[in-house]
Amino acid sequence: MDEKRRNFLKVAGISTLAGLGGTAVVDRLVAGSGIAHASGSAGHEVEAAKKSSGHGAAPDPSVNRYGMVIDIKKFQQDPSLGEKIVAACHSVHNVPQFPEKKDEIKWIWMTQFENAFPEKPNVYLDEATEKHQLPILCNHCDSPPCVRACPTKATFRNKDGIVMMDYHRCIGCRFCMAACPYGSRSFNWRDPAEFVKDANHIYPRRMRGVVEKCNFCDERVGAGKLPACVEACGESKALVFGNLNDPNSEIRKVLKENHTIQRNPSLGTLPSVFYIV
Amino acid sequence: MFEKALKGNNYYWMWLAFLGFFIAVAAVCYLRQYFYGLGLTGMSRDVSWGLYISQFTFLVGVAAGGVMLVLPYYIHNFKAFGKITILGEFLAIASLLMCLMFIMADLGQPLRGLNVMLYPTPGSMLFWDMCVLWGYLILNALCGWVILTAERKQVHPPKWIYFFVYLSIPFAFSIHTVTAMLYCGLPGRHFWLSAIIAPRFLASAFAAGPALIVVMALILKKVANFDAGKEAINKMVTIIIYAALANMFFVGLEFFVGFYSNIPGHKHTLQYLFFGLEHHGHIYNNLVPFMWGFVVLFFVGIALISHPYTRKQSDLWLGLGCASIFIAFWLDKGIGFVLGGFVPTPIDEIVEYYPTFNELFITIGIWATGFFILTILYKIAIGVEHEIEA
Fold this sequence. Notes:
The complex is a heterodimer. Chain A is α+β, with helices and mostly antiparallel strands.
């Protein structure tokens, strides 16, 4: 075979292959765009909701985003309330009580204003704020730094805005703990089993070596119940839980009627927990 | 080539046995930790990373430091480094293996480590860190081995290896940049949230890595009849001086930004590290001696390796100077940087971290394992060197 013919055959062969491959690619593209068209309107809405899920933008009522309003004044009026909500949460979720502070695990706890809001220091704090404590918990941020940091997607943001943990995937690298700007996460430094009193068998216990935190009572909310801490408040309305994206929800009404603040909002995490000071 | 590691004098075996003792102790300690959990360490929910991660961070730098030999030799054709480039490559291998061991020691669920690959998450810097660390490890093992084999047969290395040699250079920079990004992308940790972290990491790495290589070269000259050459040592010392000065410049900039802006978040950790931080009437200062040790050792080291008398008159002074720089930057990055970043906590509390003995022994054991591997690798490299000369 002479050189020219050989080259021709080479080029012809390659272009045929390329042609076949090319058509396949084009076919796929067309098919892909077809799917996109079919789900066109719905898909765009979801996308728009995603983009505008910040607090400045209009929320999308078709997507749930759970949030909580904490009325600090109610906790000042009734100091026993704090203990009640912490106990309710920790017993429902089998949160262990360790004798040593070093091993401590907590989902929701009472703390001073200056600890919850270190970016709002005030030398001349009013007496009530100085004397009383307020609850802090996971903020279920709309833009959660912990989720960004997790190398295995063991912590993730649910469609309803709840930041969740997969205890079976977590490798225990604790990157999420370093990433959380609210100190909301705890780690199982040792086997928690023997430190759980009166285990609740409806919710799983954790094994050692994984991270855990408040889950906004996802398991209860899914069953149509209120989170344990909200329920523990009874009729006091110290905690109000609901769908932030629904303009007619109770939580939105409370947000409309009261001036609320969030913990360290300047970090752009968009917390879903609001405080009435 | 491996058979070269199996022949050695008494001192060689005694040294390996000495390291082996610490490795055995660490193995027992690790088993204890494995069955009990990380509660055997001094870490808590407030200081959630301790010695393991801080050693990891420092050793990534030592691994990256090897590029200060590879780059001048292969890019600038600086011939004097020809003989010792392999020392840099093998040091990178040993350091990276230590890094991986420290990561494994730190995981709460080590058996799930592969989840990082099974559920790849490009948004997480830890995923990328794993990619570049493994990449750099494989590149160094490949390049080191192929080039040493060629040297032994006294032929030119195959052309294809140069692709990987050149690729290893950006990889060296990337391992420490990505490691810096583990820290400097976290909101709410003011001390880490600084764009100068990556350059500062690189600067201290390019001082600490070569400093260790100079110390090693001087020891090898004494115990293994291996002379790296005056020109190579001198050039490395120059690199160490400039890199060390760059690191101190960056540290100084952190001080300026913190104290001139007077923003509490920017100042607190620096205050805690260097002067002690007052909080509710108590002064927290358990890292202060380490940080002043860092500053003093830096000045001692830089004086010893800069002054013509100590630099040129005796290997002992030069070695001590380089060791001072190495230890100084270990105190800075291997102790202060990671541990300090957790003070104060996001909820403005201060919890101080004290490692436990179990944790210390595991840490020492991983270092011993690294030096064990390094000794064997250097034995092979020098064995080949002597074989050619003979």
